Amino acid sequence: MKRNLIIALVACLAATIPAVARDCAWTASTLGMGPSEGVAVVGDLALIGAGNSVVTFDIADPGQPQRLGGTDFGGTVAPVGTIDDLALAFTTGSFPARLMVIDPNSQGTPQEISSVALPDRARPEDLVVIGSTAWIVTSYLEKGLLGVDLTDLNSPVLRQTLELPGAAQSIAAVGDRILMASRQFGVMIVDVSDPADPSFIGSLDIPYAAAITARSELAYVATFGGFGQSAIHVVDITEPSAPFTISSTPFTQIAWPTGLGIVDDRLFLGLVDLDPMIALPEGGFVVYDISNPIEPVEIDYAPFSSGPQRFTPTGDTIVGADRERGLRIFTQESDGLVEIARRNLTLDDAFAVAVHGNIAYLGDQGVRFIDISDHSHPLELGSVELEGNIIAVDADGDGARVAALAWGGELSFVDASNPSLPIIRSSLPTQGVDLSIANTIVAVAEGDQGVVLLDVTDLEMPTVAGRISTSDPARAVALDSDIAVIGLAVNDVVEGAIAIYDVSDPNNPILMAQLPTSNWVYAVDVADSKAAILTGSSILMIDISNPSAPVELGSSDLRFGIPEDIAIDGSFVHVSSWSGSYHVIDFSNPSGPFVRTGTTWDPFGIVDGGPQGGYGVSVHDGAAVIADGRYGLRVVSVGRCRPAPGPERAPAVVD
User: Fold this and answer.
1) Burial of 461 (0-12, 13-18, 19+ CB in 10 A)
2) 605, 623: one domain
3) Which of 56, 62, 275, 436 could join 479 in a cystine, given CB atoms 3.0 to 4.6 angstroms apart?
4) What pLDDT does 26 receive?
């Protein structure tokens, strides 16, 4: 992040693009759409929730899931169940929440068929379908059991509400009995033999019950009771008015149970991580042998990422929604549970990006290496996890050496000669706020400390090759072969400067020129002997073909959002702005630069779930590659304008 975030409205696109604009810009693809909260499997199709979107995969070959399409439904959405050949999903971005009926693959994308609003202030937690009724447990201010009549799937109707002693988090069914797990009240049992008149018939006090499933006359309940107190409880429900515990099997993972599922003689427990301040990451799947149903025996533990938010076991395959990483598919082998496929939909908050060749280097809580040769289908090849949000990332000419700078001061060096298997080689403490790499030299802007030049010929042993003592704090830096262009911020006043140095001998950098600017400099990019400069009030284009006599070619005032980063491409400057917009400024006539085109995808920036909008930007084959906060990677294409949509728009297709 180059600038402090300030909540501001982004100006309407029509007001920022003059009539001379000849092109249009549109999102070609995104990679990372928000946390994955749910999954449903309909035949050979898996539907995964990712933020506001549902994405459909063909999993006929579970080891090679094929993404079919995705739809943005305008609010946080979580697929949670099925009926016939359709999926059921909760939307919970705002109240009232809704239950949606979704066709998983209508013309290649999931489409809403119908929906019903749930009671105000009720947050849906889980769902089970019995006959033509969906039974939903809710929490928050409205705690209860809801019955939704799905006899007519085109017009679902909320029929019944049964008040419960407390909120439940998980639900299961055996015949016409519903079983619920409640953290406060243990196991609760309701008779729904008459859907119009559900009745509470029994309960069992099991503290911190979090997940439940059942088979025949036995229920399996997962509890989290803190350190060494978590367990799988086997409960006899033969007499639902008087259930009792048969056995309890502790599990050692310090993680929260999110679900239980049974396939043949295997019981699967899903766990998600607790806050890292409480415990080390221990999310994943625990597998139990229940060939003796009253004595579960742990036979496998498959840890991964944050763990499954929801999952669906089908045969030998488990399809999970990993909150942090999207779709994950496991299979039960003779030697344990094995992951056979992963399709990342969610990324951590992304603030920085660089492009070299066909690879985008995206900085979030690490660096992700993404093949963008096909702009409409970016593919993550590999990744490394680092400490803290990455605020600057760059790679050398062939992309083999990658430098990543984390907010708070750690600089890491990654060997990306094989982007599918990147390796962290070393790291250094720094006060850096920006970086750039050329050949084997990494320049790091360190504010009051100026710019340090590091030799990374050996990534495992980077050395200080030189230091530039700037006249004022260094906020931004860009290298163009042997030239360093440094953006300065003058202390105590809102003024800045551009300093140009010859760094052909890093041990003896030479100041070639310094130009004042009317505002602090926040970002710099260089290419083909030109420099683009982002200040607090304008964007400048400078000719640096003669570094000792740079010439300002033109400038453009800022008229959209809060620009965060820029990328130069010939006579064009690509601008990424918070809270979610992108523009191209045409400097082909330096005396009259104009906004050639632009697009906005988050015009107000008031979105739940973390940072949003445009941050870092780079360019690949004329398209903008944007680090888009909580949305991950966004590729924006620029070209001839397409026909305008009609007055009524369907939900946006996100694939």
Assistant:
1) exposed
2) yes
3) 436
4) 86
